[in-house]
Write a structure and sequence with these properties.
By secondary structure, this protein is an all-alpha fold. The protein is built from 21 helices and no strands. Helix 8 packs antiparallel against helix 13, helix 12 packs parallel to helix 18 and helix 17 runs antiparallel to helix 18. The two termini are 21 Å apart.
């Protein structure tokens, strides 16, 4: 398991043989159909998760909550139960049908999203958000693992970059579409509108997507799913994997943490209604996010990007540059300047997702891929759903003092969070040191530039 190949031709010949034998089992059309459907699932996942950001202020006013209180209600329950159930669900996905787990999870979290719209009290909404969190644990890890078994190692970052298009599409649904629905019919209607389609999508997946064999396109043999502790020990030895997990988690803390309170910030600072606030960032999520994600996927499809060090260097540069406008967006008093900065900052919260997913799939052996993805998502959700909403909410309440949270207090809290993007840059740079050897240890794949 830990042996690093010493001869490049040893890796290339075995990989080619496996790829050639297995490409007959799935056509190019089938592989891309799987990616597109999984992308739509991811879009539903993001929309159902982040719709609460758009209607955060109406929920706070309706249920009479502080910033810290609404941050806890909308983010922490989902994050805590995602953490609690994420690892066991991914352990199961490495051993059972990933497709069936994905189908069941999609139906569960979509159903509970709709239940959020039926909630009339704090406790009802809290219980529904817990259900969403439990259901979402069986979403992204099985989807990532399925895609990894439809594409060879060199093309996984690109394929998962296409999969990551679901994030901007989902955020647009959760911002623009949800904002328009909330403005017309109230915040509860948004949850009903976004929850019901996901339940139908689960049926489509069950009848149209095949469960692929674990590790069918890798040079290392499938030796079966290892015990949980062995997976953890292997993850810890994969130093690049540790730093990619931390980098993606900090990116979620930085970028999505800022976005979580942005609609509320726009409503308070510029006196916009919920529909107008959603429209400010909605098109940026859709167009900017898609362009950034698609451009990144295209860059990763270039032969020279087969070297994973170039992937993490690209991510470090992009996040580092985007951190600057993320600070200016909340520092300025001008809505026009803020919009310009959002166009530079918001696309960056998407472009790292697919490459990080692809890196994690290549840093894990076949039967540990769902588990590696789960750990990455656990860290990201702890940072994003548990820490960020609470930290921003508590800081906002603290800056406001006795008169209650307002535009100024929320602005100061967001300005404290904005520079944390540079923290993610550090972890990407550290990952570059060992990513080539760690990838070879996990999958038997070395880029051609590593030929001795």
């Amino acid at each position: 398991m830990d042996r690093v190949p010493t001869r490049l031709h040893e890796v290339d010949l075995s990989t080619t043989a496996i790829e050639t034998a297995d490409m007959e089992e799935s056509s190019g059309a089938e592989r891309w159909y799987v990616v597109i459907v999984m992308c739509l699932v991811y879009a539903v996942n993001i929309a159902d998760r982040y719709v609460v950001s758009t209607v955060l202020e109406p929920i706070r006013l309706d249920l009479v909550l502080t910033d810290a209180g609404v941050g806890f209600l909308t983010g922490v329950p989902l994050g805590l139960f995602y953490v609690a159930f994420g690892i066991p669900m991914s352990w199961l996905a490495d051993r059972r049908s990933r497709r069936n787990i994905l189908v069941a999870s999609l139906i569960v979290w979509s159903g509970f999203t709709a239940v959020c719209g039926l909630s009339r009290t704090y406790w009802q909404f809290l219980a529904a958000r817990i259900g969403v969190g439990i259901g979402e644990t069986g979403g992204t890890p099985p989807a990532n693992s399925i895609i990894a078994d439809y594409f060879p190692a060199a093309r996984r970052p690109m394929a998962l970059g296409v999969f990551a298009l679901g994030a901007p599409i989902g955020a647009w649904l959760g911002a623009n579409v949800a904002g328009a629905i909330a403005n017309a019919y109230g915040w509860r209607a948004t949850f009903l509108a976004l929850g019901l389609p996901g339940m139908l999508m689960g049926t489509l997946i069950y009848f149209t997507i095949r469960e692929p064999k674990h590790g069918r396109l890798d040079a290392v043999p499938d030796t079966g799913a290892p015990p949980l502790l062995e997976s953890l020990r292997f993850l810890w030895r994969q130093k690049a994997a540790f730093h990619v997990v931390m980098a993606s988690g900090v990116c979620a803390f930085w970028g999505w943490g800022l976005i979580w309170f942005t609609p509320a910030y726009l409503m308070r600072s510029y006196h916009l209604n919920v529909g107008e606030a959603g429209a400010v960032t909605g098109n940026i999520h859709l167009m900017g996010g898609i362009v950034a994600t698609a451009l990144t996927a295209w860059i990763l499809s270039r032969p020279r990007m087969a070297d994973p060090r170039r992937v993490v260097w690209l991510l470090a540069a992009g996040v580092g540059l985007a951190t600057i406008p993320s600070f200016i967006a909340y520092w300025t008093q001008s809505l026009w300047v803020a919009k310009c900065m959002f166009w530079l900052f918001i696309p960056a919260i998407y472009f790292y997702i697919g490459p990080c997913m692809g890196l994690m799939q290549n840093l894990a052996p076949p039967r540990m891929r769902a588990m590696f993805t789960a750990w990455s998502l656990v860290v990201g959700n702890v940072f994003n759903l548990i820490i960020a909403p609470q930290v921003v909410g508590l800081m906002s309440d603290g800056f406001a003092g006795s008169h209650g949270a307002d535009a100024r207090s929320l602005r100061l809290a967001l300005l404290v969070l904005a520079p944390t993007g540079f923290w993610a840059v550090y972890h990407f740079c550290m990952a570059a040191r060992t990513v080539v050897a760690d990838q070879a240890r996990a999958t038997g794949y070395l880029p051609t530039s590593q030929s001795p």
